[in-house]
Amino acid sequence: MSFYDQWSAILIAAIAGFILVFTALIATRILAPFARERAKGISYECGMLPIGRNWAQIHVRYYLIAIVFLLFDVETVFIFPWAMTYLSLAEFIFWQMILFIAILSLGLVYAWKRGVLEWK
């Protein structure tokens, strides 16, 4: 097999993909309704005019909740594959995972004690 035989399907798929995307962008530009109105520049388009300024302060607690969520979301990314292959792993890896879970549990306890998980 030559080089071109191996990569010809990928090249054809890439060209077809570019053509489809380009055609969709051109069709959208031609067929979609386009109107220049002052209301289009408003960030809130539900039929009601916004009241006040469009800047709002967000409490830091929301960011803390997001960080805690990401922490435990990443934990599941590591624990799920470990649990699927648990029986074929060495005992050393089991104790490493126990240490990992203990460190994350300490983080949860710390966040709980600091009141990050309470909605007031």
Secondary structure blueprint with pairings:
Layout: H1 3-31, H2 60-84, H3 91-114
Structure description:
With 120 residues, this protein is mainly alpha-helical. Helix content is 65%, strand content 0%. It contains three helices and no strands. Helix 2 (60-84) runs antiparallel to helix 3 (91-114). The longest helix is centred in the first third of the chain and has 29 residues, at 3-31. The protein is flat and about 60 Å long. The model has no long low-confidence stretch (mean pLDDT 80).
**Estimated radius of gyration:** 26 Å
Strand content: under 5%
Low-confidence parts? none
The structural class is: mainly alpha
Question: How helical, in percent, are the residues?
Answer: 55-70%
Q: Cα distance, first to last residue?
A: 68 Å
Mean pLDDT: 80
Total strands: 0
Largest sheet: number of strands, sense, barrel closure: none
- Please give the count of helices: 3
Label the overall shape: flat
Question: Helix and strand succession?
Answer: HHH
Features:
65% helix; mainly alpha; 3 helices; 120 residues
Question: What's the quick description here?
Answer:
The protein has 120 residues and is mostly helical. The protein contains three helices and no strands.
